[in-house]
Amino acid sequence: MLLQDIQEKVNDFVLTNPKNIVENPEMISTPPTSSDRMQIWELPLIGVASATDALWETFKQPDIIGLHHMNPTEWLSGAKSVIVYFLPYTQRIREANRIQGVTATEWLYGRWEGEMFNMALRQFIVELVEKAGHHALAPLLDERFAIVNLRSNWSERHAAFVAGLGTFSLSRSLITKLGSAGRCGSVIVDFHLEPTQRAYTEVDEYCSHCGACIKRCPPQAIDKAGKDNQICMAYIGREKEIYVPRYGCAKCQTRVPCENKIPVRRG
Length: 267
Hints:
The chain is about 30% helix and about 15% strand. By secondary structure, it is α+β, with helices and mostly antiparallel strands.
């Protein structure tokens, strides 16, 4: 099974699956652009990490994720590769959330309904691989997936880093060549795919440290040292009470230099 075949089928899924469309225009805060339907995701970036890459073991360090983080081979016996993708939000959703303070309605739908699509895409890739006679597992669909002290036992952003898709920002978002405004997904498989070469060596190599995300953060959870997850999650909790069942914020991913590209680093 070739990565090109997987990419083509994933692209078709993104373009044709109805879960990638919001069908309730009366719920959207800005006037429709070209129709009364809102697309959530653009075509994704896809990368591959080796299941035995040395970086996986480093994630068990307490100052990175912790001992509870499971390596690919702990999730799936015989794991050989990890397919990782980054779904970028459409321009309409990104632009809507450039407003200050409150979360745009478009972003709320993009985050909630968008993750429903993301779950469906993970399952689609698992089924695609299994139909080809291999084994596959998406950790976020597995009953063993858990979050301990705000840190999960499988980080898709860290998997994306291993797979060459991007590096981290001050806000702990993943910065890819399509920016940081998006979501990751991953599937572990038991056959070999050529790993994507990483074009970086540092964990924050694509971050310009401009501080724009610091100014954008409503609860002031970000400073020059990074993001305080507890402050961030407390704010998200208040959002859930207001917008139930949706929530979003992610102001740190919009109206910033890394919104839809790798920013230019200053001198």
